[in-house]
Amino acid sequence: MTNVSPKKATQSHSSVARSTVQVTAVAADDTPDINECSVTGRLVSCDLPTKDGQPIRMRLAIRQADGHREVVDCEASRPAAIRTIQSAAQGSRLSLVCSVRKRFWRSPGAGLSSRTYLEVHRAAKLR
């Protein structure tokens, strides 16, 4: 980043137009931070909810610029996103608009654990 005000810095990372993450950092003022990313990849797996209202969990494979594949965990709880994901077959290309989330919990004997995943807001099937 060059010529960026010390109050606000924004950077965008792109991997061969397959995934884009926008990160905005703001100094201590009233401007909100942005936690939104857009990823495109292939559906690896999808766990259907056992009850209505529960989020579905899925894994998305995203091809990196160097040809390697990154598999990310995702959760969707919005009805429109759930319908789109449920109608997609394994291996289908999906485009997702998400937020990055991290959960913490204590496990007996294991101590503090965490999980990072993408919370899906919108999903679209690609051809």
Tell me the structural class.
mainly beta
Helices, by number, come to 1
Proportion of beta-strand residues: over 45%
The strand order across the widest sheet is: 3-4-5-7-6
What share of the residues lie within helices? Answer: under 10%
Can you give the mean pLDDT? 81
- The quaternary state of the protein chains shown equals single chain
Task: Name the helix and strand elements from N-terminus to C-terminus, one letter apiece.
Answer: EEEEEHEE
Distance N to C terminus: 35 Å
Q: Any idea of the CATH class?
A: Mainly Beta
Q: How many structural domains?
A: 1
Summary?
By secondary structure, the protein is mainly beta.
Describe this structure in words.
By secondary structure, the chain is mainly beta. The protein has one domain: Nucleic acid-binding proteins (OB fold (Dihydrolipoamide Acetyltransferase, E2P)). It contains 1 helix and 7 strands. The longest helix is centred in the middle third of the chain and has 9 residues, at about 80-85. The protein is globular and about 40 Å long.
